[in-house]
Amino acid sequence: SRPNLALIGATGAVGTVMRDIVSTRDDIWGEIRLVASPRSAGKTLKVRGEDVVVQALAPEVFEGIDIAIFDVPDEVAAEWVPIAAGRGAIAIDKSGTFRMEPDVPLVVPEVNPQDARQRPRGIISTPNCTTLSMMAAMGALHAEYGLKELVVASYQAVSGAGVAGSARLYDEVEALAGDRSVGQTAGDVRKVLANKLSDDSPFPAPIAFNVVPWAGSYKDGGWASEEIKLRNESRKILGIPDLKVSATCVRVPVVTTHSLAVHARFERDITVADAHRVLEAAPSVVLMDDPANGVYPTPLDVVGNDPTYVGRIRQAFDFPNTLDLFVCGDNLRKGAALNAAEIAELVASEL
Ligand code: 2RA
Q: What is the pLDDT of residue 150?
């Protein structure tokens, strides 16, 4: 019989994309159960064209479920993912809670599908959206040329911070629209926003007309949690424990689709033509690299699409075996819901 799927966190930014994804991909599922916090329970939402009533998170919602995909805050995952696994569901978790635990695989199906089979706790983690935005492309290049070092700058979309992140950008743009004097004096935008909007932004500075060099929580040494995740998760997924990684994560006024500028050093000599050949052959990567004709990916051209888009591939002048490139990936699709759905399909195919 067909496996039953539960989506936990079905009403959030990722949950909304998740419902769309399971409704439009090959339908391999028996029941699809929607679960959310008690606040959202009782709502009716569409999945596969049918109305489904959202259930409140409780141990009973895992009854008869084969696979449960979680997109909930870290502390909710810490409590409920083991409950789901304890009740016999395979839990696919999008939170940061279990990703680095040695007995929990961290899976990107194009890169390390075999790791999904080793899941002694019944838990599989899916990476942070910033890591995921580049993993399909970097995994393909690593497989042939051996990755040694990554230096990354991210340009992260506001929907990475959930529905509240997108709402804040729209509100700020609306509050500033039409005033052609703003953005010309230090602090002027902050003043306009303080008069017009609440001060509970998910971002530590204005995000409209700005870039904010901070994403996530504070970590020792002045690192942001997103930068640490990018390092640790890349190492684990690629299976290179000593990969050198340094990142600076920046929030930009883009609704959805994270971009990354990547400086990647390989073990072997690699040319732009080599990279084109590898990336053209990679099934979930789209090469958009013809800068002489203005062809390179931007978030507005990528949002809503599944693949990882790569362009601006250059051979670094002053660094051996090194490429510089620009990657865009929809942070809600491959960055979150799609990768989880692909893991679920992989696991379901082997049940
Ligand atoms: C962000 N990567 O973009 C995070 C979401 N987990 O805020």
A: 98
